[in-house]
Amino acid sequence: MSAGTFDWAAVDVAVPRPSGRLPGVSMAGFRQRVPAAVDIAMVAHPSVTLLLDLSEGEGLVYGAHGRHGRGSVAVGLHPGELRAGGRVGECLQIRLEPVAAAAVLGPSAELSGTVASLDDVWGPDAARAEDRLRAAASWDERFAIAADILGRWLGTRPPVDPEVAHAWRRTLTGRGRVRVERLAEEVGWSRKRLSARFRSQLGITPKRAARLVRFDHAAHLLAAGHAAARVAIESGYADQSHLHREVKAFTGLTPTAVAAAPWLAIDDVAWPASAPTRRPCSGRNPTSVSTLPSLGPPTGRWS
């Protein structure tokens, strides 16, 4: 199934209740009612992503940098061209803001620009987590289990420097348009020190982080149907050619292809910025699972 024809109407999406969310952690569950072969281009996002394959049988297959793997996977902050597919029945996706990722996975530098098997990242704990999640009776229970697992990791490692955490938050809220020199001034460090500490703790330089956050903002504008020329201006790119180069660098795709990417089309549902009222539907837990009867390019708010 090509990236342009993926049908979200055949997928149930579950999101946690607001009360069960951890700082810096977002989760969404996906259940394909009739497991079928899929092939989706994943779009880079300013978070470390965990994809936990809860399917029976063939399950998740992923490919990046010319290499392929199978099963649950951890995706670094800037993986380049990345595709996910296979016969996926159920999958739990967890997004970790870089500050949270450093606590859950260790120094994010180890995942910088990489896609790694979750077994390689968590060792035997990965298989145990998958078994617990598969055995759960509802998505609410799965989210609670995942929060428990992540909560045990949070706090077991030294937190990132407050200055680094501040620089990341400002980069995110500024949509990647705050200069590194300004960030260094705000925390009272030199640019060189901030860059070194930021990279060692989050696995990415402040400049690269700004590019990633700015790209993410632009990608959501493209998915919302805005013209590339307008997106370039609103996102702070020099011109449309600059936008095209950045989109290509982060995804290997053109702006037109990114605008139609299924991975972005689901963002407003799977990753709500707030907690909107959900339509009940069929599924394990009607109170937390939303069916998408007809989902085109999202409009309005973006996350």
From TrEMBL:
Cross-referenced InterPro entries: AraC_XylS_family_regulators, HTH_AraC
PROSITE patterns associated with the record: HTH_ARAC_FAMILY_2
Chain spans, region Disordered: 275-303
Entry keyword set: DNA-binding, Transcription, Transcription regulation
Polar residues biased stretches: 284-293
Tree of life domain: Bacteria
Boundaries of every HTH araC/xylS-type domain copy: 162-261
Family annotation (SMART domains): HTH_ARAC
Protein name: Helix-turn-helix domain-containing protein
Protein source organism: Streptomyces niphimycinicus
